[in-house]
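Moderator note: this is an archived Q&A kept for reference. The question asked for a predicted structure of one protein chain; the sequence and the answer are reproduced below.
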Amino acid sequence: MKKKKLIIIIAASVLALAILACAAIAAAAMATPAVYDNTFVGGLGEKFERLNTVEGRKIVIVGGSSAAFGLDSTLIEKYTGMPVVNFGLYAALGTKLMMDLSRANIGPGDVVVLAPEMDAQTMSLYFNPDATLMAMDGNFGMLTHLRGGNLFSLLGAMPRFAGEKIGYLTSGEKPTGSGAYDSSYFNEQGDLTYPRPENVMGMYYDPNTMIHLSADMPAPEFIAYINEYVQFCRSQGAEIYFGFCPMNEMALAEGTTPESIAAFEDHLKTVLGCSLLGTASDHIFSAEFFFDSNFHLNDAGVKHHTVTLVKELLLAIGIPAFVNEELPAAPALPEKSIRYFGDADENAQYFTFELTEFGQRITGLTEAGKVQKTLTMPVAYDGYRVALLGEGALKDGTCEKLIIPAGFEQFITETTSSMMTLENGSFIGASSLKELWIYNRHEATVMPPASFEGVSKDFVVHVPDGSSYGEGYFWGERKLNGINLIFIQDITMN
């Protein structure tokens, strides 16, 4: 018995010391100047400040990056006469966090629209402590608004956060976002103002984030959380609606029909404790209206989506106003040149291909490719550029190191940034793969899969030093979800 008590005392002491150590590290990290304020997630502080400083009745739109990329709040204010807080930012933060923070200032007469992306992650209680700490850098008072047992995961992430932050402070350089993913592009209401004239996706949609409108979403525990949030909003004298984010029609999962969409809406009406704002169908737009993801609108798309939302809001809150706005025509989809007239790429001998409308898709390995320890992806094959690494393309091989050469950057144009897509499941069966080396400096040129399922447990990704992969929207999220990024000091190809 004494021995058991001693073990318990020692274990408790070790735990207490660990918590104290984490607390000390946390205090040190919080006391230093902010370094992530210029990144995309760094926009959270100003959004939170607006939420808490707008006086009187207001409209609060809670969601992810589809809200940041999808709204013209000034237009909403014009017709409703109420100030707008665009409280959407980044899927990696999770919808739960944004709901928790929004509780800080929801009051009488407010109208809350909860409009997460139609994705399994954002329609769940997903919480990412690393992303949260980065987003709150410089305004850690927001942590007091978190609910539901996220404290220990935050403490566990604190040493990683503190180490990375101290590294930036020591170097004298702060991380910044690239392109649209810089917090300086958020306006007062929280809308993203970076110019987005047209669709820049190589396939006009992202095949790795297909949209499934089914009764499997939201997760049951998320439904319960939403309904408790609904009760809270109403207890504060506010009204709340469940809204729909913009969705790329090309990204709808196979088998999606008007009937299946209606069934999904009926499911939401049954399980949610608040009314739906409009219909999902009204927020499905053609690919011409999107920018760089299946949920991010370009400038023309913002106008169409916002006008749709305004009409829904006016009807819901009983304002008899006629919406008189000229809607822009759909921007033409940029022409994609998939032909390649350069020299043959010797690396093609190790892969098998199929030609698609977007270029060559790597489908597997040749017998010679299966025995290679290092493989370099070819930029072209048979007169067409390589655009896709297909599902299971590396299975049955012994490859330990895969290289994506800088040559893919030659295909970047003013209207296309995404040059290579690593399809979901690309690495299934690639249990020997330990390293992925990417020599493209532009983060958006290589679209990552949703996960790296199938690779070695020691798998790491090497990317160019000074590039935006670490804080970028696409690869940054993979980093936050556990992918180890190592920055290459010398990116000269051998």
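Archived answer notes: The first strand starts at residue 59 and ends at 63.
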